[in-house]
Each structure stands twice: as structure tokens, then as C-alpha cells.
Amino acid sequence: MSDFPRWKYALVALAMLFGIVYALPNAFIPVPAVQVTANRGAAPIDQALRQKVVAALAKQKVVAGEVVVNGDHLLATFANTDVQRSGSDAIKALLGDGYTVAFKLQSTVPGWLRAIGARSMPLGLDLQGGVHFLMQVDQNDVIDKQESSYADDIRGLLRQKNIRYESVTRNAARGQGIAVILRSEADRTAASNDIANEYIDLNVANGPSTGNRYVLNVTVKPEKLRALALGTIKQNLGTLRNRINALGVSEPLIQQQGENHIVVDLAGVQDPAEAKKLIGTVATLQYRPGIGYAGDAQAQEAARTGNIPPNANLYYMRGSHQPVLVSKRVIVTGNELVNASSGTDQQSGTPEVSVTLNATGARKMLDFTNANVGKPMAVVYVERVTETKMVNGKEVRTPKVTESVINDATIQGAFGKQFQTTGLGSQKEASDLALLLKGGAFAAPVDIVEERVIGPSLGQDNIDKGLKAVTLGLALVLLAAALYYKLFGLVADIALVFNLVILVAVMSLIGVTLTMPGIAGIVLTLGMAIDANVLICERIREELRNGSTPHASIRAGYEKAWATILDANVTHLIAALALTTMGTGAIKGFGVTLMIGILTSLFTSVTLTHAFTALIHGHRKLKTLSV
User: Fold this and answer.
1) What's the whole-model pTM score?
2) What is the DSSP letter of 123?
């Protein structure tokens, strides 16, 4: 046993040190806190506002741990959730609607641990509490967009083929397709053939004819509509994931439910209003030709009389509220953005959003700006929110779309793929808009149809039960090993404890969210980990019965048991990998914990116990073994 390599001793020592240091943050319990951020148009967060908050809390006799300004938000910590709630009420009464006041749990991990990347494991919705949303995707909007797009394409095709037509319009009923009115039977036949050949996803049929009006009915095939619906759900799932990740919400659960619903669980978010602000906002930009400039005579007249040109919309400028006429034609939209970042304009010092378009959007923007240098172009900010009202004791949710112009400027020169948008009220607004644009636009609008807050008291009850399960399971396994295998059992117990420590450290380092299924995975890992030591001890006993010396028995026990241990753990690892890659939610959480636990068990059960055994027996003359 004296030939046990020194580098393995060093490896074991480093692994134990790593486990202790990176598992340590989980011993620091986060404290309830209230976070305050400024809304659009409100005064920024500064020390003067902090003093007002401190005074308001003192006046209401609410004891706060600390009240500090961190960047663009203010943070106040409290001793428990009851005081947190009282503090939130006092702050809301002081600041009014100009600020968003949200609950959160503030980490208490010391700075020196955070400096080396050590952090506590985030807790899942079942342990930490949080908010649950059920969101409905507006599939009718998909049909509207698709039929409008096909109508534009058909007009272009008919012009390209020199086929005379009177009109191409969508039918009044949604989903009933497009009516193409032509001037002769020959034109209708030619149009029918060309449309059928060019667009294989469309059904084309002759409609009733009166006089010189020959109708062609064009509808989207049902299988194409189903594919669009499925694609819409998938794109909205991706957009939600990107948006929530960009806005800093940790480990969300986002998954499809049924044909047109999405479930979103956000652990640790205690304020549903703040969570809805993060995920429910549907904001995008539209770049449109300007009819004139903000506040000019034509716009003032249209605002006063309501006589708006048929090719224009009347909007108002953000901030100044001056009327401005904007063309109905859309050059590019947020759907054609591939990247967005906030910054400051070097000349004016005002906030800006730098935009990068995809190839299609860049080509359209370049073509338009080339042909319209010296003419106005408006940037329209479109935001969709859902208003909730109580009607006859029932919640009625109504989607509301607000549109305003944030920039109305003259095109100074041609540009295409990259450019900047200015006119935003603050750097925070520019940053939020950039994050929403970068996260992607929804393929179809989504409305929150159900929301539920899961209180932290439920989570604490689950945590207590989980800790009792882990403690009881670990204690029974330790006791059984020590009684049955004596000294070797005690060595196995030490390895089992460090297996738990290293497992928690790895999960904390890579940011695995701990849930009740995760705790079940930890308990199962501890139960399976002792199996390897049972195999080793039984091999050593067998070698002793065969007449081998104690040192030879130990060496042979580890060598001969290794192949069996590896085979058993590889099969477990394959099962855990399948759960991790194919499962979602609770199943995936269980699989991740089990997979990490198997890998740590392989190390602690073999290498760590071998190191301790070598330290105890390596340089001693042995007549027998306590096994």
C-alpha cells in the first residue's frame, strides 16, 4: 500500500477543499428584501431617494437591515417576510406609481466567496416559492398575418405575370382566405395556374362570377395552418426563454401545455406584477416612412379635425405629445432584428439603441434609404399590454396596443444592416428596450390567462421535510456501514459525507436549481454510493479468506472491484443522461442531480477511500484487518 501515488493524495486533498469551499455558501440563508426601480419618466434612484425611504420606514416603525443604492435600483433588507411586507407597503405609499417596488430574496454569501465564484444553489418553485403563469397564444393573429402576407405576394405575382385584376382582398371572416377578383375568364384561369404553381401551400378554387367580375378564392391548406400554429408555439417558447434569461430571472420553467398554452414558473419572484412586467410586455419597433414632421401644419390639422390621409396613421411623439403623420407602410419591424444593444449617442449624449437587422431587413432598409435621402422616417414603438378589469365579479382581460413615435428624423444617407435609434427617455428605458428586442419578438401575441403566487411558507415546509429525509437517510446508511464493516465502514462513512459535500459544491458551482425531485436524487445518490464500498469490502474479505496478506488483500480488493463498480455506474449514468436530455421540469431536475451524484460517487467511493485506507494501513505491518 505504500506505493499509493502522492499525486492522488494531492488530488483528494484538493477535491475535499473544493467541496468545503464551494458548498459553504449554502449555509448562508438569504434574507427577505424589497427592490425599488424607477419607471419611465420618474426621477432616478439616488442617495436623496434613499434618505426619503429610510425616513418613511422609520416613521412607520419598520426596522430594515440595510437600505442601499445598487446602480439603478434601491435595495432594503428585512428580518422576515412579515416585516418585508410592511416595508413594501411603506415604500409604495411614499413613492407612488412612479416606481416599481418588488419583493426579492437577497443573498448573504460573503464577498470573498462571491469573488471566487462560490454561490448558493438557487431553489426551485416548490422550495423557494415564486409565481406561476399560464399564457395563451393568439393563434388567430397568426392566421391574420399569414393571409395578409399571401395577399401581398399574390398582388406581386399578378403584376409580375401581367395579369389584369381588380382587387386582392382578404375575406371578412378570419380563416376564410383571400378573394382575387379578375376581369376575364382567361385572366382567372391564368391566375389560378400561376398561384397554384408558385404557392403549394394554397388551395385555389373558382368562385361565383357576375358580369365582368371573375372571383378566385384562395385559402391556406389546413396542414399549413397546423404547421404554423406549432411553429408559433415553438418560437414563442424560444422568445420567452431568451427574454427571461436576458432579464436575469434564474432557472425558469417554460414549457408548452396543449396546443396554444405556455406554462411559465419563475422561482424566487414574489411579486407577480413585476414578473408580468418582465415576461408579459410585448414591445417592438416599426420603421415607417414619415408623411411629414412632428407638429407640422398637416399633422396639427389632422389631429384637430380627425381627417387623416388614407395612406397614413396619426400618432403622437413620446414625451412632447406632438402629433405626427406616419405612413401605413412598414419598412422593417422588430421581427427582422438579430441584435440590439443600448448605449449613448456620442453627439447628443442621449440614450440610444443600436440595431442590427437580418439580411432581408437590411436589404429593405438599404433600398428604402437609398431612394429617400432627405425625406423623413419615423420609428414607431409598439407595446401590447393586457388590462384586467372586474366585471360582474369576474376577471375580464382585454389586450391593449399602444403606439407612439420615439424618433422622427430626416434620412441623411443610405444605411442598411446596422444603425442607431434615438429618442428614448432614459438609459434604463433604452436598456430595457434593447433586452426585449434582443430576446426576440413573439410570433403571435400572448396573454396571461392565469397567475398564481406560491408562498415561501410552502417552500420552507418542503425544505424542512427534504432536509429531514436527507439527514435520516444519511444517518442510517452511515450507521449500517460502521456496524457491519467496522474501520473500513468508518472510512466509507467519511467518503459518503464528502460525496454529499462535493455533490452540493458542484451543483452550486454550475448553478443547478434545487427542487424536491433534486433532493430525491441526492438521497438516491447517497444510497447507491455505499454500494461501491460494499463491493470493495467484500472483495477484501474474499482475498483474506483465500489466504492473501492484508496489504495484498486491500490492493486486490480495489483492483478487482473497480470493473464491477464502473459497469454498474455506467448503466446508471446512461439512465440519468436520458432523463436529463429527454425530460423536462421535475424529471430533468432529478436526472441532473443523479448524473452529478454518480460522477462524484465514483471518485469518493474509490479514490478517496483508497487514499484514507493507504494513510491508515500503508506503512504498518498488519496481521489482520478490521473489515
Assistant:
1) 0.61
2) B
